[in-house]
Amino acid sequence: MSIDNKTAMQRIVMAVDLDYFFAQLEEIRRPELKQRPVVVCVFSGRTETSGAVSTANYVARRLGVKSGIPIVLAKKVLAGHPESVFLPVDHPHYDTVSERIMQILSSISPQFEQVSIDEAFLDVSSTVRGKFDAATEIAQKLKAEIIQEEKLTCSIGIGPNKLIAKMAADHGKPNGLFVVPPENVGSFLNDQPLSKLIGIGTKTEKKMEDLGIKTIHDLSKFDTDVLAREFGKNLGPHFKRIAKGIDDDPVITRQVEQIGRIITLKNDASSFSFEDEMIPLYLDIADRLSAQKLKAKVMGIIVITSQLKIKNRANTLDIPTDSVDIISKTANCLFQQFFKNDENLQEGKIRRAGVKVSGLERYGEIDEKERGKSEAQIRTLTDFLQTDGSF
DNA sequence: AACAAGGGTTTAG
DNA sequence: TCATCTAAACCCTTGTT
Q1: Which overall architecture, per CATH, does domain A258-363 show?
Q2: How far is the CA of A205 from the C1' of C11 (A)?
Q3: Does the CB of A232 fall within 7 Å of any strand B atom?
Q4: What is the pLDDT of residues A253-303, one digit of tens each?
Q5: In chain A, where the domains are located
Q6: Contact A71, A50 (CB under 8 A)
Q7: Is the dihedral of CA A219, A222, A223, A226 positive or negative?
């Protein structure tokens, strides 16, 4: 009997999540806010209070303020707390600090994946040679370093894959460090409600409940075919796998696939009367494309009705572009078409509008699809020359 | 049958 | 008038090759 010395090392993934990031940054700017409810808001500019809550500190959260609720509602909830502060988002500042922290994180392991402005995964398997204790030590040092450098607390989860690491980080929030070694995955999952599984939101949870799936354990035992029928051939089986704690998704630096901007219009529109309001969006998208050395092949518009129904219209260009001129002409054309022939207008007016580009290509790099197309074109030409082309 | 494009849904932070 | 903004993954339908 030979010992298999090629046995894969135990994968160890770390999820790092900065606690109530925007609100914590505001607390650092003004430490006297720490004891008071802090609500960071996206004001739409329509009225004094229209808009939504981006993030709130835990003082405000304990009183019932949650991400995404209307600002007006948050004000009602905090009516009895005149010491509350409502601040507008300051993205440039948040971006700057985020960048510095991501720098620290990416120095821990080359296998680094930034998921959002305040979240990242690290695969430390080889760094710690599969030892969870060593990974835990790294996490402790990391937390200390982030406090040292930026005065910020974060929550770290450690697990055998991204899913478990992320759920562990959530579990320890705020200022947590929670470790789930492989042998504890089962009990860790079974102790939690279905809604804590990453990727299962309110709609999916409700649908599962209707199917009689009430716990993560129920889901892990449920008929795969029924899941595939109800949630799709990929998503259904995926849900079952994550309920068992199985997740092979690698920690990889992802590349940007779409760039978009959307705004709330000054007034609801029933015709394309907001061309001027779109100009800054076009400029911004063009800027962001060229800053990342990207060109886009697909140009799209997004329209949100006064009933908050989302509509998309898009078309594909012959040649990828980063030109403001082409972006604005194409988008304006799509808006015109939308208002011209869409009976959707009967559903109501337009509240918000935006632009989105995708089908992104880096300069000098031939996209796989394009390469395929060129080859097909060459073959066609060759065939032509060999048959009809010869005489 | 395989693939592209367009449009919708859900999730997450 | 309660209701932001960005981005990804997936699903479905329709039309081409």
Answers
A1: 2-Layer Sandwich (3.30)
A2: 18
A3: no
A4: 888 999 999 999 999 999 999 999 999 999 999 999 999 999 999 999 999
A5: 21-89, 192-247, 258-363
A6: yes
A7: negative
